[in-house]
What does this fold into?
Amino acid sequence: MKKKQSEQSNSNIKMGKSNRTLMLICYLCIAVFAILCLFPFALMITSSFMTEREIVAEGYKLFPKNWSLSAYRYLLDNPTKLLSSYRVTITITVVGTAIGLFIMSMAGYVLNRKDFKYRNFFSFFIYFTTLFSGGLVPTYILYVRYLNLKDNIWALILPGLVSAWSIFLMRNFMKSIPDELYESATMDGAGPFKIYIRVFMPLALPSLATIGLFLALGYWNEWYNASLYIDTATKYPLQYFLQKMVNQTSIDSLTSLGHVIDAASVPTQSVKMATAVLATGPIILLYPFVQRFFVSGLTVGSVKG
Amino acid sequence: MKTKQGFHAFGKEIRRNWVLFLMLLPAIVYFIIFSYVTMPGAYVAFVNYNPNKGIFGSDFVGFKNFEFLIKNGDLLRITKNTLLYNVVFLVLSHTIQIALAIMLSEITRKRFKKVSQSVILLPHFISYVVVGVFAYNFFNFDNGFINSILVNFGGERFSFYSTPWVWKFIIVFFYIWKTTGYGMIVYMATITGISSEIYEASYIDGASRFQRIKLITLPLMKPTFILLMLFGLGGILRGSFDLFYNLIGTNSILYHSTDVIDTYVYRSLVGSFNFSSSAAVGLYQSVFGLILVLGINWIVRKIEPDSALF
It folds into this structure.
């Protein structure tokens, strides 16, 4: 141990000029890239606090002359549609994540049990769906014509509910569970479902967190299925509401409920940014706490899909 | 005879392990309804779809839908765009991911390392709709950030949203911006996996940092790189719909240089309710995508059987 340390310090002394320049380049490149990653967020946030007059006259700025809460005040005064989008997004996130986790953890558990004879067959049955799909049109016809889910909130939940990839991630996570654990639990008289609840679930908590995070993120960022299936404005999820908002030159129709507002008084440009801040805010606030689950999931998932 | 026995054994197994089957059932039912049932529906690409008659009641037109798309040049254009964008995405993003992963793993200050890694991963967590908002924030004509700088310095406003060529760069930029953190972590996991003994030996031999990167880290990352590249090539006909659609939307001025297969499929359905051409392009993508994946998997199996998908 001591020898290694001296070797290390030796090499530190030896660390010549070229090594130091190399390190400097490393720090510099990473710092620049990290700033590049943060910059759009910073611009979005400062833009949301600008006065409408300054935006119209001089454009969005990183350092506005005047700070103003008018965009947020406007959104608070006309909260109906924003709140209903929040409600839709929170509902699909909670319901979708819970149901998806339940279905996929059970599937992962069954496919993980080596005494389940047909697990290879069912694994392939699930895997094949990632290789070939009917495509958008048959899926669309299925949802609209046969399942009658046009303008129904379940059309936002069902598409991302179960994914082959997550089931396999779950199964790979749990590969380390020894079979003896199941066997001894069976000896003690526990049925398969009881073993799933009492033995599998506690051990699977980290992987449940990871897959739960994937699911929740997908639902929170959902806009695609809404654009296909949802017509009624009160059923828009948050991101779709935001997309409509940004693409509109006049946003009062989206925020107010019929009563006429003086269109000129609407701080349109800053409200667009404020809506984006409110739609992204919860993710950024939770990010420091959840990212480690994400990183661990990535590392396991990358070993083999 | 054999299949009959097979079914018999299957039935017996179900009776014995019915709880396990029941627990797997929801997932299986899900895939049957949402994947397997829609597969025969791809037949819609060969009919003149009439909503009143349904997919299988509509008139069969053979390859007419495909012919139409080939003749008007759409299929060639979107295939070319999709391939070009994906090749640029693959090459550029992997180069940057590898470079950053190596740099970050060389850095010894824990705090700097942790914070910068979190920051670089952050874009992965937001939706592409927000990326579209960023683009609007930067590039819109009347009050975009870039135009306000241009005007400030006495320049002319630049109309990004009616200039197709700039979007090639903007799309690539945001692709890199959004996906680098994810790929970087995958590569960092590879670097962490390299045995520290190899590095220690190189210390003793007096190798410089640069030599270590060149002679140890890079060669040992090569297998991961090749695999990720190959799988990336397998998906070269798909992808990034979210990115393209949220940046370009329905701005037809920009289509020529930004239209890809997925945006075409989506727009044909949602914009013009042209079920037939949407389905034809979708099937074309699915079939060639499948062939590509099978081919790539065959190659992977040759060079590294353990990493093959099946």
